[in-house]
């Protein structure tokens, strides 16, 4: 399918989705978000795809939801139309791993989109923020919820109340991102990580995603039980037999997602 606001490339089992509204610093409008969800669903349904990467431009991952699109909307418009609700749900339904490769601004909905991915690798130029407070609103896709769980209440309050930006070094120190790399190496490092994931058993990969995400939803005891049962159930797969035999035989495992 031809997209106008994103570019999708599938290579070596990785779907690379590049947000592409350069004139608006990749601001998220209805079209971009629905194209993004469609591309993610296609990647989910494409057997060749084993990992997904979402990225933006060097200057901006995404500078937020499109303020010009939102400015004339009324409460009734956004409430009755559930602005950004179905798209956020659509992204959360994806079961394959998604890495955010962030360079430049990841603000508002852009920071929230990055946090909806499974982990974030950013360049040393990255700037994260929830500046919605400057517009007289608050975050609407996880900036007050996910960010608080990721970096703690004090820092989240600071970000959401002052609207200040956090640089890459602080983002790594705070646990928002998994790695910071030099800007020139961002895509190389991210694609290497994606390739590494693509080599694993897809069943185990999807199980990891579900188990780690579950840790944000349920009490520890429930989460531990869920993890143990999933761990045990993976012994029903051929990939578990292959992975453990390959170790014993000192060779690379050949996983078949079975
Ligand atoms: C619409 C945007 C935009 C946005 C930038 N642009 N951010 N358009 N929505 N969120 C547009 C600008 O209007 C401008 O277009 C062009 O992109 C370049 O931006 P500049 O401001 O000229 O660039 P610069 O001076 O380098 O400043 C970069 C910036 C600034 C610091 C990122 O653009 C900025 O503060 N943007 C808004 C950030 C923000 O408030 N995000 C939160 C949005 S609310 P023109 O045509 O004028 O040249 C949100 C709510 C989420 O995300 C809730 C649920 C999803």
TrEMBL record:
PROSITE patterns hit by this protein: ENOYL_COA_HYDRATASE
Coiled-coil regions, chain positions: none
Catalytic activity: a (3S)-3-hydroxyacyl-CoA = a (2E)-enoyl-CoA + H2O; a 4-saturated-(3S)-3-hydroxyacyl-CoA = a (3E)-enoyl-CoA + H2O
EC id: 4.2.1.17
Keyword Lyase: yes
Keywords attached to this entry: Fatty acid metabolism, Lipid metabolism, Lyase
GO biological process per UniProt: fatty acid beta-oxidation
Annotated GO MF terms: enoyl-CoA hydratase activity
Pfam family, one: ECH_1
Role noted for this protein: Could possibly oxidize fatty acids using specific components.
Family to which this protein belongs: Belongs to the enoyl-CoA hydratase/isomerase family.
Stated name of the protein: enoyl-CoA hydratase
Organism: Roseovarius nubinhibens (strain ATCC BAA-591 / DSM 15170 / ISM)
């Amino acid at each position: 399918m031809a997209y106008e606001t994103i570019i999708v490339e599938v290579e070596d089992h990785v779907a690379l989705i590049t947000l592409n509204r350069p004139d608006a610093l990749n601001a998220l409008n209805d079209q971009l978000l629905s194209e993004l969800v469609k591309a993610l669903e296609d990647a989910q349904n494409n057997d060749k795809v084993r990992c997904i990467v979402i990225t933006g431009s060097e200057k901006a991952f995404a500078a937020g939801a499109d303020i010009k699109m939102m400015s004339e909307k009324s409460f009734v418009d956004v409430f009755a139309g559930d602005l950004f609700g179905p798209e956020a749900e659509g992204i959360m339904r994806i079961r394959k791993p998604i890495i955010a490769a962030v360079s430049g601004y990841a603000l508002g909905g852009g920071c929230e989109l990055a946090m909806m991915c499974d982990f974030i690798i950013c360049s040393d130029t990255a700037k994260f923020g929830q500046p919605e407070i400057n517009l007289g609103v608050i975050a609407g896709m996880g900036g007050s919820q996910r960010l608080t769980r990721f970096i703690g209440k004090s820092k989240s309050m600071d970000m959401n109340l002052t609207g200040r930006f956090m640089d890459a070094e602080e983002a790594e120190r705070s646990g928002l991102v998994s790695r910071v790399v030099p800007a020139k190496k961002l895509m190389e490092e991210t694609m290497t990580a994606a390739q590494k994931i693509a080599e694993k058993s897809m069943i185990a990969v999807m199980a990891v995603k579900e188990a780690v995400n579950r840790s944000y939803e349920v009490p520890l005891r429930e989460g531990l039980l869920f993890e143990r049962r999933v761990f045990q159930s993976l012994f029903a797969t051929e990939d578990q037999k292959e992975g453990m035999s390959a170790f014993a035989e000192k060779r690379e495992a050949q996983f078949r997602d079975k």
